[in-house]
User: Fold this.
Amino acid sequence: MSLYPSLEDMQVDKIMQSQNAAISNAVAQQQSAPFHDPPPAYSANPYAQLLPGSVGSSEPENGKKSEFIYPDLADYLGLELSREVIAANMPEYLNRDTRMAAYQPEVSAVVTVNNSNMVAPVSGGSVGLKRGQVTNGIRELILCKGADKKVGLRAQAINKGVFVCVVVKNSPAALAGLRFGDQILQVNGTLVAGYSVDDVHKLLKKSDKNNISLVVRDRPFERAVTLHKDSAGSVGFQFNNGKITAIVKDSSAARNGLLIEHQLLEINGQNVIGMKDKEISQLIAAGGQIITLTVIPTIIYDVMMKKLSTSFIRGKMDHSLPDF
Assistant:
């Protein structure tokens, strides 16, 4: 079973498979068909039947073929045509078996996303596809404290878990690759399930300046959706204050299952939390033909961001491009 990053990739791959199957069948039928010799060339003697030993027949004596059948196009009419010249200008005249052996079926590009191989004939070259994917895997980060004796993150407690809600730009947390929505599982080996936000902040505050170990699960509440722009440059959704409010019928957003009541978190892997809608629209416009969105249900987003002012988020949040 093949996996695809978008419905468009699946449709293109199926078209390619159908084309390859049709061409392969045609090649097989042509190779299995009996090969018929070409008709004899015109004889230099228009009355060859009057030649000795061939009365009443155009076939030469002893059943030999006419000496005027040209074995190769290069010999026809004395033209100086090498096989290289024929291959470059008239490949259809080359030997049939050579032509069939040269046929190579088209193969869709395969990319590794979330540790799985995905067939991506359209999206395979998209940088955003790789940057924006959500793995839900567990990783360990080693942090240090900055000049302000902080690691540069804020967290929120939800359902007995602790989640990152702010990653401060240019902070140790940002440099280590921490992202909005990461679930903190351990701090220096201490499990933090059921901890309050204050308890987690105290653990970080008591930590040494260097070698602070954070074990996190990659953004369990989030998902990534890859979309393709139409001829007008639209991916087919509307948003207000980063919240998706409408899906255009028959658009790429509709085909790929984008939902309303979800908050935009990243565009091609770049954090857009706290950005103005105009800035987000500019990122989408400049993001290329293929756009990967990272989204989260609005109801969860609102809980994570409560008590945080828009101005604080806009001034503190890391909006740099990930380098992984």
